[in-house]
Amino acid sequence: MKLTRRALLLLAGGARILRPQGMASRGVKPTPRGKPSGIPFNARFTDVAEAAGLRAPVIYGGVDRKDYILETMACGCAFIDYDNDGWIDIFLLGGTRFDSPPEGATNRLYKNNRDGTFSDVTDKAGLRRTGWAVGVCAGDYDNDGFDDLFITYWGENVLYHNNGDGTFTDVTKKAGVGANRTRWGAGCAWIDYDRDGKLDLFVSNYLDFDIRRAQKPGENENCKFKNIPVNCGPRGLAPGLHSLFHNNGDSTFTDVTKAAGIADIKGHYGLTAVTADFDEDGWPDIFVACDSTSSLLLMNNRDGTFREEGVERGAGLNDDGSEQAGMGAGIGDYNLDGHLDIFKGHFTDDTCALYRNDGKGNFSDVTLGAGLGVETRFTCWGAGIVDLDNDGNPDLFLVSGNIYPEIEALVPGYPYKTPRIVFRNLGNGKFEELIETAGPGIEAPHASRGCAFGDFDNDGDIDMLIVNINEPPSLLRNDVSGGNHWLKVLLVGSTSNRSAIGASVVVSYGGRRQVQAVSGQASYLSVNDRRLHYGLGKAASADLEIRWPNGKLEKIANVRADQLVVVREGSGVIRTDRFEKR
Amino acid sequence: MLTAGREALERGDYADAERLFRQQLTKTPQSAEALSDLGAVLARQEKFDEAIKTYNRALSADPKLTGVYFNLGVAYFKAGRYQAAVTPFETFLKSQPNDPRTRQLLAVSFIESAQYQRGIALLERLSKEKPDDASILFALAGAHIREGDEERGRQLLEQLDTLHLPGASVHLLQGMLYYRGEKYEDSEKELQETVRLDPKSAPALAALGRLRLRVNDDPAAIGYLEKALAIQPQDSESTYQLGVLLARNGQEARGRRYLVRAMELRANYPDPMYFLAKMDMNENHPAQAVKLLERAVQLAATTESIRFLLARAYKQAGKDDLSKAQLVEFRRLQQERLQRDRKAMDPERPDPTQSMSTDKNL
Questions:
Q1: Which chain A residues are within 8 Å of B216, Cβ to Cβ?
Q2: CA atoms of B276 and B282, how far apart (whole Å)
């Protein structure tokens, strides 16, 4: 018997069609790797979490299998100086399990003991709470001098007021920022969108997820990965709707979702929310990294409303017009042109995305040209544009981890626990991937999610706090060598909101110019150290141009390197700290 | 005019046939026959989206044209819309319940839309009727493997050996099956064996090229595709893939030549147009990109990526209004797809973006 041409056609049917699956992935293969640059990388990361006392696991859903998408997405974390002692503390979100919540399933606050260790002060602070926590944002909404915490949940979101004495009070109901029903709150960001000096609140919602109606693994094409039954979604599930709350100035908020035009934005699986003035018109905008749908760029109309222009401005999709699984996003100035670019992580079999800003809020996807197409193996979450080796060129950092623990035994090449990724900036618009050469903390595999960037040991570099699902977190201590200089800038608003969220600082050093912004949330549903950190390379001093949230410009010339400068709006530098060992 | 059109179709002059059918439709716009013929010529030119619309119009004009249901099913099938192909095939089978070709296409449509049990049941019946049909056995084996019953799949593959197919054919089929199941090592073994038995097997060499491409071995992929094309230079898909590979490995000029050749081989092939347009845009030649993409969008009107790139090309060319119009269409397509996904997941659930539920389910 001979095979006919028609028979062969039948056999080959659909070979070129990508099979549906729950998460957006283009099935792309990595681009070829170039030759290693051979330039030494002077940052080295070691996981010191255990020695630092961060030993409690972050409980989140099943360990070996996850029946619902809720169990996979997990949560963020924060570097926050809740007691204003100049040492950043740690706040870790946590989840629970469907069968029965294990003991210790709670969010946790750890106080920095200033000696490389932390103490769990969760109970003392009044922050013990079990539930499916998702995102966190920190900001001083009542301008009383202490950063408050807003936490999103699958369930009801919570606003904790920082009492300034080491304790917090749940003021959700009083403040009017609860939903009074189950929603899947995800990203949140404090933002003074009307520039009245008080922080308002934006909340993105991921899914409208009803556990009673949720399909089981394998029940639908969106419940499969590589033809293996896995938890369903997000594709095929109903997207959440986002919210905006206006701060009334009396510790209460008004829901202005509809009036601000946010209610019109439908059909996006919203996650991390990052606020900054992307078009440099003096008014803060909002970028929302969205999963498997186009990401959102909400441009501020300066009249209390927003218009969504993610696709039009080039930051919503990749350059093929494909949605990507945008979970986390970092902002920074990778090419030192004084404009805020966006870096976003994505699902396995896809590249991350780097969007270059032209300064008017128009973005170009420069991922492949920047050399980032070499890595497509991992699912990436926490993301940042941060100068890890203080050479003055911001690097890119991602944490990763698969979402299907069931598949690694069945499909080779899709491990559940995967390493962290450093893309070191070569200074010519291109990046070089480093995993094995950036220290044991980078190559160690985990199923990671949230990630916060900050300097927990005040030694002049960027460390990382990372959420690992059903494991203790990682605390990556950075030990930088090579003698590069650095500068930290902490802004304190006076007429602007006290946290200075929405401010940006352009630092000029050694002929280079770099902008950073104080944002309401970043990475993956997380909060970075509010002290902006600049590597200065060999420059021993720098000039600062501060754009405050109310639009005012303040310049400070010839600031010495290797110190923290605290700048109060309108008063210049009010304090410096060289972090000398005490 | 219809007769002249059919004659043109018969001799392969699709442009003339299309012109004649359209001319007829200006006179009798509701002629189901003319619409059906126009659908057929559009399908021959692989303009499946347009063919589907035209067949549907023909059926609205005359729902009793049972043959059109078959053609509509095939158009959906070839466009990769397997779920949509099911209903027209089932409708056609009501009038011709034993037609083996339609039953087999329906079975494959079930399998491709993950309705494995229905597809397997149909193929089992077909296999009993035609136990020597290798394509049925093979599709059945593939369905079992994709459903997770590897053991049964392997048994059926062994059964293929008893059909006394030429050895190379069996290995080629097994290699293709493993490839589809993403079992690349097994696939490579089978395909290498095919090439050992038949060194001139262009399909095996091309499949090996695609396989090396999957595992990021670009130099080997280029080598295999070059060999395949030396044997079968008319293979438009391999020509396109080689063009892309060369372009992404620093041989832009050579890659461009292969991409142009792929377009010459298959005039209605949007993929090389898209890739060439991207190259043009990177080299800041938006006008050239616009030309290619305007052609591509005619061929694949519902392909979102082409609409998106065309919007960008218009923008780069300074045609902001045209860019905005493309983005509007792009967003519409996106929303339609998302709604389809939602319906597939939970058809009875009202759209919660219109009215949110208020119950607590913690």
A1: 29-30, 32
A2: 10
